[in-house]
Amino acid sequence: xxxxxxxxxxxxxxxxxxxxxxxxxxxxxxxxxxxxxxxxxxxxxxxxxxxxxxxxxxxxxxxxxxxxxxxxxxxxxxxxxxxxxxxxxxxxxxxxxxxxxxxxxxxxxxxxxxxxxxxxxxxxxxxxxxxxxxxxxxxxxxxxxxxxxxxxxxxxxxxxxxxxxxxxxxxxxxxxxxxxxxxxxxxxxxxxxxxxxxxxxxxxxxxxxxxxxxxxxxxxxxxxxxxxxxxxxxxxxxxxxxxxxxxxxxxxxxxxxxxxxxxxxxxxxxxxxxxxxxxxxxxxxxxxxxxxxxxxxxxxxxxxxxxxxxxxxxxxxxxxxxxxxxxxxxxxxxxxxxxxxxxxxxxxxxxxxxxxxxxxxxxxxxxxxxxxxxxxxxxxxxxxxxxxxxxxxxxxxxxxxxxxxxxxxxxxxxxxxxxxxxxxx
Length: 425
Fold this sequence. Notes:
- The chain is mainly α.
- It has one domain (about 1-425).
- The protein has 21 helices and no strands.
- Helix 2 runs parallel beside helix 15 (about 270-310), helix 7 runs parallel beside helix 9 (about 140-155) and helix 15 crosses helix 18 (about 350-360).
- The longest helix is centred in the last third of the chain and has 40 residues, at about 270-310.
- The radius of gyration is 22 Å and the shape is globular.
């Protein structure tokens, strides 16, 4: 009887949490309350809860927090040193003659920048450069916004910062060749879908009415141009990880230092220190709220694992043990990741991940693909993702139009990438 009551309470609070998340509730508050509630429901002893739920997971998250900070800093440095702006202006020169080709180049550039850069601050800094370019070429606003957000979402498959955030859900999954062979394929698949989307709307792009907006980034603060060799820096951290097996931390640091040095920002010690201080303050400010939310998320994840462990046998009888069947189920229900739903790891999906992990039915890498791919769908085209929301507001686009434009293409990419996960993971 006790287990039945516990199970009912868990399901009830889970449903309430899903509702709270999907209605735009503050996730930091939601995760913290759920961590406490599930600790109580699971009858976890106080001394165990203090150490294994509210202390150890947070302390162990320090390494991942550093990845996030350095990724955000690198993204800010790419903008403030003029590298991102220079790449964009080179693309703009193609726009007047071949707007469709230029739009494809912008999508590729966006994906390359965010293969290592991370954070809403970096997305905003790059967006205020790229959106005016696309609008001036006549790309309709709804198409431009979806191209931008889907391209960032594609890059997240190989972004070491986001990858290391997700490892809290999947113990045993590590950055390396086994994962990257899937990551690069998934990124390529989503980018091909983005290109297909651009070609599908080619006539609207060619016949679009140019719209000029003033950039929010003062031109005087960004060098007019930089050495084209710096255009390789956005992909340097990933390349160092692949070819030299470097961890993302030294790889991001190296790329950041080279960005300063190769743009002339280290010629003067005083100027370098000013640039370093300015970019770090801005970068950390951009992701401060995210860091607190993720630290609280580790508490909830640990509470979910402790509590759900009591129901492993029950879930084993409910969840299909066929990997192919699970892939097909996920293809159909993937949009449940929207609005922080039960397939979004930064939402109610944290509990879903805990349930799947507790059953032990699937190996960690396959489970990673099974749940991360729908999450990436939301990252790419859901309004509750921070940089997606900013993009919609910047373009003065209504939410319904954004969702209707991006969801079909994000869903196609998700279906294909779930198949890729089944084959490669």
